[in-house]
Known about the structure:
Elements: H1 5-23, H2 30-39, H3 43-48, E1 55-59, H4 64-77, E2 83-84, H5 92-102, E3 114-117, H6 123-129, E4 134-137, H7 145-148, H8 151-161, E5 167-171, H9 175-178, E6 187-192, E7 219-225, E8 228-232, E9 245-253, E10 256-261, E11 264-268, H10 273-288, H11 293-301, E12 311-315, E13 318-322, H12 328-340, E14 345-350, H13 370-374, E15 379-385, H14 389-399, E16 406-408, H15 412-421, E17 428-433, H16 435-451, H17 456-466
Parallel strand pairs: 1-3, 1-4, 2-3, 4-5, 5-6, 6-9, 13-17, 14-15, 14-17, 15-16
Antiparallel strand pairs: 7-8, 9-10, 10-11, 12-13
Helix pairs in contact: 1-2, 2-5, 4-10, 4-11, 6-8
Amino acid sequence: MKRTWRFWVALWAGKLITMGLQVTGKKGTTLPGKIAHWLDPEIMRYLSAAYTDGIIMVTGTNGKTTTANLLASILRGAGKGFAFNQAGANLVTGITGALIQDARWSGSSRTSLALLEVDEATVPKFCEQVTPSLAIVTNFFRDQLDRYGELDTTVRMVRGAIPKETVLVLNADDPLVAQFGTDHGKSIYYGVERTPDSRSESQETREAKFCPICGTELEYSLFHYGQLGIFNCLGCGFHRPEPKILAQNVFPEEGSLHFRVGLTTFAIALQGYYNLYNALAALTAARQLGLNDSLIEKGLREFVPQAGRMERFYLSEGEITLTLVKNPTGFDQVIQTVLGADKPVRILIGINDLAADGRDISWLWDVNFERLGVQEERIHQVICTGLRAEDMALRLKYAGISEEKLVLEHTLTSALDLLQAQREENEVAFILPTYTLLFPLREILEDRQKKAGLSNVKANIRGEEAST
């Protein structure tokens, strides 16, 4: 592929900006990618051609970052180098920046493999220039309607953009994802036999109540969560495909998940059955790349959760779990994890409505907060913070949480102080923020953890020791 003068100007400008950011101690990839893409809108096409071992794309509504980082942990453990937008900058500018970081001044790449998280709305632009060798599709749920539009539009857009020559790694238990394999011959499915919380009936919000092929109402013999489960359409015969990778003997244990695939037992230091699917997606992709189960097991076991993905902090008052919330189904799964602790609970919920969070917060009324209300005796306190703290408190009041347990506090440090102030030894604490509150809260937690004499590494080791 012949490179133009615009490519060289864009590449070198991006490299210079990257160097400047690194000198100042910043790790941003978005600015170099933004400038480079402005100078040459085709730069992704040229840079991607250098990856002779292929490009892995990870997309979907929930779990993109965790899935990509789980696969990265496996690849690193196997001694493989790869380009990676680890920070989660998954738009065109962030992806371009990650490729520039991996590129030499000569335009060649330092590695032969790329692992790229791609926002679902960005998939069409990405696939115009890049043909992924492998594409992981995690799930589809409503998310930021003001940005993505209706869910069927997003699904159709992603499905139509992925090239036919790309091998698909698909969630068999999500009808919206499984349908991709009906007209795409190169598809590998992963799924779950059952979890301890799987049920034959469900009152949860489902995004795929009707068959995506013919529109007939789907029948389920088993629900895992949301629309994920074992489904069948009596109208056209569309059904949950047989997974090549099937998780069995699933059980949680002290902040981790255990499961078996075939003869091999795996464990990840994550809570929530939605993270089981993330692990299965990474496992399936790793097998497709030719890695054996011993390397995969090691990579999953040694995985350290990323920022705000069931991330644990150890303060003098006790452990706190921080996890991002951004849409109804994801929040429902977090609530399930919170209640699954089977201990008294204190919760700090932070809701903003900035552009990155989604301007429309009506989605809070689709979250099943009533599950907290039903078990209100276990909920000792809920602190609401953020720009829409009052809206969150009102939603919880209607869900059955008594007013004396609801606290409004807009200052983050004070909100965290309140969370810890009257905490008892047997209580568990969770902080659940939307995106723009995640990193400010995380900085406060990191600072307090250090003052308590525990670095992140020591904290993780201590947590692992406590769970064994």
